[in-house]
Amino acid sequence: MKKLLYIFFVCFSGVLFAQKNSNVKFAVYNNTVGTAAMFDLYKNSIEKAAVFKTKASLPSHLKKFDYLADNGLIEITFKKNAGYPDSLSLEMLNEQNNLPKGTPVFIEEYQFSDTTTLVYNEMISNIEVIDTNGQKNIHISTIRN
Length: 145
What we know:
- The protein is α/β, with parallel strands linked by helices and about 140 residues long.
- The protein has 3 helices and 10 strands.
- The longest helix is centred in the N-terminal third of the chain and has 16 residues, at about 1-15.
- It has a 6-stranded mixed beta sheet with strand order 3-4-1-2-8-5. A 4-stranded mixed beta sheet has the order 7-6-10-9, covered by helices on one side.
- It has one domain (about 20-140).
């Protein structure tokens, strides 16, 4: 009985802590993922920010990011000749952390299975490699306001 209760608590705590962060809102510029909070630093360089409130309202070129649109998705357009943040691929992050390139990465508990996805460096607050059931994955926390 104790073993059964222990297994229940372990599974339940895993469900509790693996919740997607409902406070994070993702933004995309030039097929690269960032957060709305991160783009606040670039307010003067942004020409337009199109907000899509539901997955169904995403235009076809953003459908590949529909798994990030739980809280809507923002498409950023920068002014001509404006500077924008540096980016890197998730597979590069995997390699830097001695993980296979194709290992899924979690950003605020959203799973990024396509590790060729580019993300902006500036949104990253913390990177941890966490072992869950024998599978090591990168878990990224973002900068929030």
